[in-house]
């Protein structure tokens, strides 16, 4: 059963500061992600990978097309057309989005940031704190940092706090935009194995990694975007080794 079905997704931007011209990022993308499937987006810089993730999370409002999410209750909602308040509610309950940047209130403690994500997913506050502690421990965030404000963290620590918050309880659909870009090998390994476990537990994952090794290890399918269109898709090994596609995913 598909958790996500994208049909005819178009996203263009009007550049008001540059004579109002329009830039197209996505030109009619169709894409499905099933429960327990990890679909990695590949393609050269500017191909539309991040824009696609942002349209699904609704950071960007799609220009046209449908972004259908089958929620845990079985209902199907079109994220492209949903009012903002309902999108905010779904983000708390069903969607996890982890980018390389931590978006958190600067004066909030690390443990609190992660626990609040759990409460937004419907956990009671005590359970959320326990789950937050477990997630931070698993991702190698030293307990001495838990009471500190997120602003004092290094880039790699922020990235792991972000992951802990995005995955405190398994979301139905996890969106990952370069989640390991700032990590050293040991922490990268911890994050990759956590993502693999989530897929194993039935989470649908749609990701962007600029790291071929991570894609080969984690993805069940690769979708290659070129110029805002799907250029190829298939099993990671076959797609990534196809030199004709001139992939520039490893930069
Ligand atoms: N907020 C925006 N305003 C204007 N144009 C944008 C915006 N976001 C993306 N674009 C344009 O959309 C196109 C696709 O960009 P996008 O960031 O989705 O590509 P990408 O495949 O993720 O690239 P990269 O691998 O370099 O991150 C580019 O031409 C980009 O300039």
From TrEMBL:
Give the protein name, as stated in the record: ATP-binding cassette domain-containing protein
Q: Which SMART domains match?
A: AAA (SM00382)
Q: Which GO terms describe its molecular function?
A: ATP binding; ATP hydrolysis activity; transmembrane transporter activity
For this record, an example GO cellular component is: plasma membrane
Question: Origin organism of this chain?
Answer: Nonomuraea terrae
Q: Which SUPFAM superfamilies does this entry report, sorted A to Z?
A: P-loop containing nucleoside triphosphate hydrolases (SSF52540)
Instruction: Tell me the first and last residues of the signal peptide.
Output: none
Instruction: Give one Pfam family.
Output: ABC_tran
Segments forming domain ABC transporter: 4-249
What keywords were assigned to this record? Answer: ATP-binding, Nucleotide-binding
